[in-house]
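Why does this matter for the project? Reviewers at the last site visit asked to see concrete outputs rather than summary tables. In response, this paragraph embeds two records directly. Each consists of the residue sequence and, immediately after it, the corresponding structure tokens. Nothing has been edited or filtered.
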Amino acid sequence: MMSIENDDKNDTDDKAGAAGVLPVDEVRRLLDVCWKAKRITELMPALPKGMKPRYVHVIDAIWHLNEPNGQTVGVARVGDVSAFLGVTTPSVTKLVNDMTALGLVEKHADDADRRAVTLTLTTRGLNIRRTYVEEYHARLARLLGGLTVDQCETTVATISETLRLMQEDER
């Protein structure tokens, strides 16, 4: 049974949250779980030598952007990849240049606009996606089968909104 003091504390916490101030204990719990989320990413399979985790994100973005037209027709552009990932265009440009040098991505001059460049994945890039996205995500889908879609959606929404608010505060 809860004591009156605890009931008063919970009322205070609820009021603080309603007033637009998250209780400090909840901030601590949120940050603690963010550290756990970081640990989850550290448990991902080791990448081949020279590969960065961001490369896998870019590979997956290029794949998704090109998928409606098939993987041999490059429609993905650096700006599209930036928008897909929610990161700056200069950072994607650097990643794509690095990945081109590693033989993961090919650049193609756009037929309609010779100044524009489209991107496709090489066989090596497609193999990286198969191993580190398709197969790994399928394994996690089985492993995490006890979670509900609602739990996943709540987690995604909470972490996304936390990041948005903190980035907004930096500006």
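We now turn to the second protein, recorded in exactly the same manner.
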Amino acid sequence: MELVQTLDDYGKPAWIALMVVSFIVFWPIGLAILFYLIWSGRMGCKSRNWKSKAEKKWNRARTAFHSTGNAAFDEYREETLRRLEDEAEEFRTFLERLRAARDKAEFDQFMDERKSNGKKSENPNDNAGTVPQAG
């Protein structure tokens, strides 16, 4: 496990280099390393679960702030962070409302088109889409 920690310290390039060398030396080992990297999430896309990862980083960063000894600055910093969190939450709420409005508009447009297409096909002279009767 010390090797894994060392490679994690160097980052993705070290893992990729090890995988390439393993494929060259003996391909099943390279394949095993590739599966391990995918399974462990070390080579995963950064955008996956970005929201929860970002919140974890933000919380970690907030707890990392220690008192500077200047009470006025500490109070200002806490108020600014609180304000930024509130603005971020308001923005997320705005985006959710925007997406919901867009989805509703698209659905309403679909329903209107469906209704207008339905009225056209009710014409008795219009045989489009009907199966002729054998008789």
